[in-house]
Design goal:
Distance between the termini: 59 Å
CATH class of the largest domain: Alpha Beta
Largest sheet: 8 strands, mixed
Bound molecules: histidyl-adenosine monophosphate
CATH architecture of the largest domain: 2-Layer Sandwich
């Protein structure tokens, strides 16, 4: 006898039921709409890329988590862990001549060999955008405002926006005598909140104790004036301008957090994160900022900034906050009471569908009682009962499923009656 194998879903991946898909598509539609309202246009890139695209400058953590494979031509390929590097590759290859600003958005699945838990998956969806061209404070402010607006307008009530600035952190480190090639490991420790190790590392780098203490104080800064007391650079002035424009766009609720260093290596300048505290451990909904990848991929230098939202986390946040998602309903369910009525019933369901009414028909020859039961389980608003007596009079019965009221109508009047 042939042995049966149980094939399960791979760890960290999910199947989405019809109800879940309805929620996801609903949120996706709103997101597309908001991006388009801000002048962004959608792009799509492949699910896999040359491995090198991600190893050049994505950061150690991402590289550790990457899904790598060889194809039949022995090429090293990777499932994309994020979409910024692919979109910038696309820009360098084909879009450099387009007029600026170039505003691109995407919705796509990403893969990271992460330790799965609620809100953290091996396959997940990112919704994000890249802004190519402008290097003005109002451009960065608009980008941050867009991320905030997206999350608010899809219906998430409680979010916290934090802003940081890597140029300021780097300037501080340089002032302390830390070399550029040493930044990376320090940034990693800040990102992971491993401050004791950070202190030890700085000490090993021969930074004076009082300077280390000052740096630790600086990282605690929670407003821009305090930052200014620690360090005076053009980066602080620029950061202040971004913050001022953000207020003009209409956001007054945000925190300054100099500890935001982001997990990817390509960032510089303004960086930001948005959390949904209701999500607990995996509360980070969105991350982004200014970055540099274009020259690395062989393109002509240009300013770039963007962000990505964890779409799956956004859905969980909405569910947790009790957001009421729309339900899919059938407008009309057509029931032929016996086999002889089938032909007539098919004509009716065709006519309804042609007129853009969501209509379905009993395909299991189940008879009236069972069909009515099924119609209420699929939340049909009305049923059309096609019976022999009525057919002789060129009529059908319309039943309102919530009140149970039934009326006989001429088949030719059905459309106007079901539209009501
Ligand atoms: P990221 O912070 O690595 O940034 O990812 C963005 C968002 O994706 C996170 O805030 C989180 O909500 C979601 N996310 C990340 N990993 C997972 C996972 N394993 N499961 C579920 N959700 C996850 C980027 O990827 C940058 N490319 C963002 C960007 C665009 N920067 C500039 N442009």
């Amino acid at each position: 006898m042939e042995e049966k194998t149980n094939i399960n879903i791979p760890r960290g991946t999910r199947d989405f039921s019809p109800d879940e898909m309805l929620k996801r598509r609903h949120v996706e539609d709103r997101i597309r709409n908001i991006f388009q309202n801000f002048g962004y246009r959608e792009v799509q890139t492949p699910t896999f890329e040359h491995l090198e695209l991600f190893t050049l400058k994505s950061g150690e953590e991402i590289i550790e988590e990457i899904y790598v494979f060889k194809d039949k031509g022995n090429r090293d390929l990777a499932l994309r862990p994020e979409l910024t590097a692919p979109v910038i590759r696309f820009y360098v290859e084909k879009m450099q001549m387009e007029s600026k600003p170039l505003k691109l958005f995407y919705i796509g699945n990403c893969y990271r060999y992460d330790r799965p838990q609620r809100g953290r998956y091996r396959e997940f969806t990112q919704v994000g955008c890249e802004l190519i061209g402008p290097d003005t404070p109002e451009a960065y402010a608009e980008l941050i405002y867009l991320a905030y607006t997206l999350l608010k307008n899809i219906g998430i009530k409680n979010i916290v926006l934090r802003l940081g600035n890597l140029d300021i952190v780097y300037a501080f480190l340089e002032n302390m005598g830390v070399r550029r090639n040493q930044f990376r490991e320090l940034m990693h420790l800040i990102d992971k909140s491993r401050f004791y190790e950070l202190e030890k590392k700085l000490y090993e780098m021969r930074v004076a104790k009082n300077k280390i203490k000052m740096f630790k104080e600086f990282l605690k800064c929670d407003n821009i004036n305090k930052v200014e007391e620690f360090i005076e650079t053009t980066a602080v002035k620029r950061f202040k301008e971004v913050v001022d424009f953000l207020k003009i766009f209409g956001i007054n609720e945000f925190e300054i957090d100099m500890k935001i260093v982001r997990g990817l290596d390509y960032y510089k300048g303004v960086v930001f994160e948005i959390d949904a505290p209701i999500l607990g451990a995996e509360k980070q909904l969105c991350g982004g900022g200014e970055y540099e990848l274009v020259p690395l991929f062989g393109g002509k230098e240009v300013s770039t900034a963007g962000f990505a939202i964890g779409f799956d986390r956004a859905i969980i946040a909405l569910e947790e906050e009790g957001y009421s998602f729309p339900e899919q309903k059938i407008d009309v369910y057509v029931i032929p009471v016996n086999e002889k009525m089938l032909k007539n019933a098919i004509k009716i369901v065709n006519m309804l569908r042609e007129n853009n009414i969501a209509a379905d028909i009993d395909l299991m020859r189940r008879g009236l009682t069972k069909s009515l039961k099924y119609a209420s389980s699929v939340k049909a608003k009305k049923t059309v009962i096609v019976g022999p007596k009525e057919s002789e009079k060129k009529c059908v019965i319309i039943r309102d499923m919530s009140s149970g009221k039934q009326v006989e109508v001429k088949t030719k009047d059905l459309l106007s009656k079901t539209k009501m």
